[in-house]
Amino acid sequence: MIKGTVFDIRKYSIHDGPGIRTTVFFKGCPLSCWWCHNPEGQARAIEVIFRENRCIRCGACVEVCEHAAISWSGVGPITDRTKCLRCGVCAAACYTGARECVGRELTVPQVMAEIERDLVFYDESGGGVTMSGGEPLLQPDFAFVLLEACKGKGIHTAIDTCGFVAWEALDRIRELVDLFMYDLKLMDEARHRKFTGASNELIVSNLQELSRRGHSIVLRVPVVPGVNDDDESTRQIGAFAASLPHVDGIDLLPYHHMGVNKYGGLDRAYRLPDTRPPSHNRMVEIAHTLGTFGLTVRTGGQASLSYP
Question: Looking at the domain covering 48-102, what would its CATH class be?
Answer without folding.
Answer: alpha beta
